[in-house]
Amino acid sequence: MQRGSEMEERPETELISIPATPRTTSTPEILTPSGLRSPKSAPKSAAAAGTAGWTPTSFISPRFLSPIGTPMKRVLVNMKGYLEEVGHLTKLNPQDAWLPITESRNGNAHYAAFHNLNAGVGFQALVLPVAFAFLGWSWGILSLTIAYFWQLYTLWILVQLHEAVPGKRYNRYVELAQAAFGERLGVWLALFPTVYLSAGTATALILIGGETMKLFFETVCGPQCTSDPLTTVEWYLVFTSLCIVLSQLPNLNSIAGLSLIGAITAITYSTMVWVLSVSQQRPPSISYEPLSLPSFSASAFSVLNALGIVAFAFRGHNLALEIQATMPSTIKHPAHVPMWRGAKVAYVLIAMCLFPVAIGGFWAYGNLMPSGGMLNALFAFHSRDIPRGLLAMTFLLVVFNCLSSFQIYSMPVFDSFEAGYTSRTNRPCSIWVRSGFRVFYGFVNFFIGVALPFLSSIAGLLGGLTLPVTFAYPCFMWVLIKKPSKFSFSWYFHWGLGWLGIAFSLAFSIGGIWSMVNSGLKLKFFKPS
């Protein structure tokens, strides 16, 4: 009897423990312009009423459960926990379902590895031995190692900050900058370097891809070719047309196959270039002493420009949040887990490409390295020693890599175009509007490349101007969003690292401008025929 009375006195709500979880909005799917389905947030009326709206688990409350027997309660509570784990707890912007970056959210760790590898390895690796020619062995390897681990840490920061605020995903670099620095200041600080990095890289890829296509044709055709060859500008136009055709793929997830091709070709031609260089006999007058210039100021500026080339070798941070935005995210399976898993694999492979190219290239050519980089050195020293088929294959792989890299670096610009259109019209872009934006962007880059043909030679200046995106801003964002204890080690470390990145950015930009002016804007990545 005593035991029975205790059971009767116990409140009904104590018979079962229901964890307190935030109320969430349901996420019905809508059809996007490309035919994919994407989640859509709840209507604004529910939010305006001060409630989160009805959810599939809102009826499972203690009051509802009280008249039901214990076995049924356990079933319903388990179902509630499952639905809350699977359901997306993030507030979703309906406009994101119409934009290329967030239109499809079925990415995974494999896609993250492909995209990061495609964005992280490219033509900029071929000019690293040029930087070693001015820095020498010790400072060259030291600067490359420090830059690699520094940018790997800032990449981890960006991955963690993607969902730093509960219920909010920062799908783009500029959005995270606005959250950290404020609406207006964030746009001013992040918009120019990210757009400059995306559009400037796309223009440089058109120049390099067109010139490489010309070299490939001349290598394959040989002296027996009787047809009238295309001019360099015409090859630029051919390459641009191919880029525009491939750019019709609708969103970032849809180019995962292209990113895989770009990653494979980048690894292959990077390995071929340094293996072919090391396997040949070195020039007799080779020296490994850093290049000396007549004056101290000239030497200092050349060293700064070389460090800017090293910084430019590590690009792609302006795409990290965009790549992570293509992944689904729940409480049980947050997006940062597959993103970081794919990024770690990608950057191990990136290190296996960059370090051998830099060290092997400098060992093979020393300070005789031409300003155009490894392909120029192969052409200048071993054009008769290396079989024509291998040279042609190397050039073709570079073309494939440039075509795929153009797509991933242009996707943030496509996203900006379509965001402006959808915000004004409140409807998704049609296929024709989307195609028109991409054709327009491709030919704008083509005309810039024709008007500024020296753009591909100023890697040091590009590295200096875009360095804050990779090395400085993520450190500031960590402090402003995570808010570590003031004057703690983390507070000092991130502020110091960020300001050091800003100082390097100014110094490398000055060195890049000096190098550009001193060379008379005549440097080329590839030797003109």
TrEMBL record:
The keyword Transport belongs to this UniProt entry's keyword annotation: yes
Composition-biased stretches (Low complexity): 38-52
One cellular component term from this protein's GO annotations in UniProt: membrane
Subcellular location: Membrane
TM region(s), chain numbering: 126-150, 185-208, 255-276, 296-314, 345-366, 386-410, 431-452, 458-480, 492-517
Superkingdom of this protein's organism: Eukaryota
Residue segments, region Disordered: 1-52
Domain Amino acid transporter transmembrane span(s) in chain numbering: 106-517
GO BP term, example: amino acid transport
UniProt keyword list: Amino-acid transport, Membrane, Transmembrane, Transmembrane helix, Transport
Stretches with biased composition (Basic and acidic residues): 1-13
One matching Pfam family: Aa_trans
Protein name listed in UniProt: Amino acid transporter transmembrane domain-containing protein
Originating species: Rhododendron simsii (Sims's rhododendron)
